[in-house]
Amino acid sequence: MDNRVRIKELFNRLDRRLFMEECQEFAHVDGPFPIGYGQTISQPSLVLAMTIMLDLKTDSKVLEIGTGSGFQTALLASGAKEVYTVERIKKLHDKAVKRLGEMGFDNISFKLGDGTMGWKEKAPFDRIMVTAAAIMVPPSLIAQLGEEGKMVIPIGNGRVQELTLIEKDSMGKLDTSVKEYVSFVPLVGKYE
Ligand code: SAM
C-alpha cells in the first residue's frame, strides 16, 4: 500500500474529540484549538501533512518534541514501531500519559522535560517530529537523528514559520528544504 494512503487511513481512525475535552464541539473543525496552559492541539490537516512529510515507516523509531494533547503522538504510534515523546508542561504530559494509556497504546515512552535537548539515551532516531516553532534547529536533535533519518520542524521566530524537512544521508550530510508556511506556538527551552 502507498505510504500516504496508509497514514491517511490511520489518521481517519483517530477520534479527535478524545484529545480535546476542553472544546469537543469544535473537534471536526480543521483548526488549532486551546488545550490549556497557553498551548494548542494542532490543525488536523497539518498533523496529517506533517506525518506524510516525515515518511513514517512501520519500523520507524520516532522522537516527538511537544506531546501536547497527544493527538499527533497517537498518529505516530499508530504508524510506527515506537515513539518517544517529550513535553515540558507537567499537566499536559500527565494528561497525555493517562489518555494514550487508556486508549491502549503500548509503544509510546513519555518524558517530562526540555525537548530541545532530545532524548540522548534513546538515540539515534529514524524520524524526529517537532510540533513547536524553533528559532534554530537544536543541535541535539541533529546529533540524535540517525543515518537516512528525517526530521520535520517549524523554524522561525515570528507568527509565521517555515515548515522544514531535514534529511540526513548515510554519510551524515544534511539536506534542508522548506515545505510550507505554518503557525505554531514557540518551542521553549535551551535551544529555542
Ligand atoms: N501536536 C500537539 C497536539 O496536536 O496536541 C500539539 C503540540 S503544541 C502546538 C506544542 C507543544 O510543545 C506544547 O504542548 C508545548 O508545551 C510543547 N513544547 C514547547 N517547547 C517544548 C520543549 N522545549 N520541550 C518539550 N515540549 C515543548
TrEMBL record:
GO terms for cellular component: cytoplasm. Its main location: cytoplasm. It comes from the Bacteria. Its EC number is 2.1.1.77. The keyword S-adenosyl-L-methionine applies. This is Protein-L-isoaspartate O-methyltransferase. It is found in: Cytoplasm. Signal peptide: none annotated. GO terms for biological process: methylation; protein repair. It comes from Alkalibacter saccharofermentans DSM 14828. Keywords: Cytoplasm, Methyltransferase, S-adenosyl-L-methionine, Transferase. Pfam families: PCMT (PF01135). The keyword GTP-binding does not apply. Belongs to the methyltransferase superfamily. L-isoaspartyl/D-aspartyl protein methyltransferase family.
